[in-house]
Amino acid sequence: MEITPFEIIENKRVATDTYCLTLRGDCTSITVPGQFVNIELPGFFLRRPLSVARVAEDVLTLAYKIVGSGTLELSEMQSGSLELLTGLGNGFNPGEAGDAPLLIGGGAGAAPLLWLAEFLVSREITPWVALGFNSADEVFFASEFMELGAKLLVATLDGSSGAKGFVTDAVTAAGIKFDYVYSCGPEPMLKAVYDMSDTDGEFSFEERMACGFGACMGCSCETKYGSKRICRDGPVLKRNEIVW
Fold this sequence. Notes:
The protein is α/β, with parallel strands linked by helices.
């Protein structure tokens, strides 16, 4: 964990209430997809945890959804500097992927899967990527996944883009075959992914966090191997340790 200053390069809206924040600074402590950062916002007591969507040398890309006054304030920042806690969380392990991994995300859960897809493609593994949203205006990163060469499936609850319904149902209907699964999104979606197949995999949980590095114990959850902190022992948990 490091406290690091970053300069804002760009902060743009990419979908309804969803933004991509591009920063420049020291990214050396961010090493694997699935990690997150904690941003200090002027005037707010608690930092905001944001998913890492991409890292390229000293350029960091974060994706976030406006969910309250803090992220609303962040969405209006177009220049200046931000202080980040970096190197947080236990991320995905790309080395666990087989020959046909599935990356499945819901809403803002698409963000950490982008860097993971880059990792896999760089190792000559072409993943399936399945993304679920409520409607077409919430879809983001679809073109970025396609540019990587990933096989893409999009589902929306109202059918305004891609398949209609839940993304897990769309994966089943499409008959996608996979030998490992990486998933990120709201807990009901993660449970549906878990129930969809008994294939081994890794699940990234979304949770409210206070400190972001395990000191406050506010984001603890029970696993088959005892209590774990989502911010420090997670956010990624292995399938075989999850208790629903």
